[in-house]
Amino acid sequence: MNNAFFLLILPTRTLTIHLGSHQQCTGLSLRGSCTSVADVTHLIQTVQQMLERRPAHAWIDGQQLLALSPLGQQALLRAHACGQQAGTQLHWCGLSPALQQDLQASGLAQQLTLQPATSYEGPNFLLPERRTTATRLPVLTD
Q1: Tens digit of pLDDT for each residue in 58-73?
Q2: Which sequence spans correspond to the domains of the chain?
Q3: Are the CB atoms for 60 and 92 separated by under 8 Å?
Q4: What is the pLDDT of residues 86-108, one digit of tens each?
Q5: Topology adopted by domain 18-128
Q6: pTM of the shown model
Q7: Which of 105, 46, 37, 115 has the alpha carbon at shortest distance from 72?
Q8: Which of 15, 76, 80, 122 could bond 39 through an S-S bridge, CB–CB 3.0 to 4.6 Å?
Q9: CB within 8 A of 32, min separation 6: which ones?
Q10: Nearby residues of 37 by Cβ (< 8 Å), 6 or more positions away
């Protein structure tokens, strides 16, 4: 194999997921884009981890979900099916109007429980505005 050239491309995740539960509230917060195989795998694995607790309802904050490829849309549908198999109702809250239109166009919106951000009843510490205010330290003055 003289003069061989190999190019190895490692997939990178562009999706960050925060998972949490508090008392009877279980949820996820999705940040970034779900466009690659690595993103889809990450989402499905996290949903399955969340469903191990067997909650009746799980709340998914999508306010900071920026993009869904067709593969990402199928991941949402697969997550929904996993929830149904586990007996858990998944509530997709706060998806942008553009993402909702994409889901409508693909016919997937009717299969998911899409709700406004104000309907989110999951752990508050998962919400972006809650995380930033909760982690601020007081300023000490002399």
Answers
A1: 999 999 999 999 999 9
A2: 18-128
A3: yes
A4: 999 999 999 999 999 999 999 99
A5: Transcription Regulator spoIIAA (3.30.750)
A6: 0.80
A7: 37
A8: 15
A9: 14, 15, 16, 39, 64, 65, 66
A10: 11, 71
